[in-house]
Amino acid sequence: MASRDPVDDLRRIAFYLERANEATYRVRAFRSAAAAVAKVPAEELAERAAAGTLAKLPGVGEVTARCIAESLAGEEPVYLLRVRTTEGADMPAAAAALREALRGDCHSHSDWSDGGSPIEEMALAAIEIGHDYLVLTDHSPRLTVARGLSADRLREQLDVVAALNEQLAELPLAKPFRLLTGIEVDILADGSLDQTDDLLERLDVVVGSVHSNLRDESAVMTKRMVAALGNPHLDILGHCTGRLITGGRGTRKESEFDPEQVFGTAAEHDKAIEINSRPERLDPPKRLLRRALELGCRFTIDTDAHAPGQLDWLSNGCARAIACGVPPERILNTLPADDLLTWTTAH
After folding, report:
1. Contact present, 267 and 293 (Cβ < 8 Å)
2. Residue 222 three-state SS
3. Which one, 164, 222, 314, 318, has least CB within 10 Å?
4. What is the CATH architecture assignment of 6-84?
């Protein structure tokens, strides 16, 4: 029986664990093992598998060693089979159709800020999922807890993205793919955006989010968000209530603001409201999503992914969009990349 690629199998296990929102240490074990195995010559791997010494490789444990051995023997690792076949129920037909219509994801993070994987891994995962594009939106400098990018680091990242796009263009991909430049910029207390205007001007997509003073009074938060939505550089209002409904960080109540003013301003300036697909966020709540729709807003369905497997969370947002009656034509990431960029430069 021909051997499989153990590096690919280990990475695929990590992907499924990320999608299932499993503990970070468990995901890291498989990604670390994949990185370690990638450096070992095939002949040495075979010898170690035969001798039962795979677990002596740095970064490889007993569980990952067993997966590697099964892969080298041409068998799908039992661990991979288990995580692959316990993904959950299929989406309802309408949500599945909407998911199929999405061309890309407008909110993602890499290890340049608080994501867990390099930019290239995020891009390759997006390609494997079937995206036409992925917007890289690492954090802005004020969010130091998330290693937000200074202006200099963001400029450096723009060069890295350009070089990576050149490399991806040389690959024999099933269809073209583009990594788009972006940022999740902090909306500061006065409604200004936490990055220089010249850099924001250079980016393909700007997501603006509130990460501080989330318990401000409604009038204060409303004024802050309305000011941000009036900024010509802002394209998408990210996770608008800031709520957390589950997960390792605990729960957090919604921020209070006047939806008529905030969503009305978004519609007036043709800004999008993000339907955030992270399981612990699922933001905005359905009542606010319906109100934003009634007020004429456009939307994006985004994962806010911090790891490759999380890029497959779009189905969460699709289900909520369908439940609230959001039509595909109001969702901007159903557009091809060029049309999306036409929109971001037009307002």
Report:
1. no
2. helix
3. 164
4. Orthogonal Bundle (1.10)
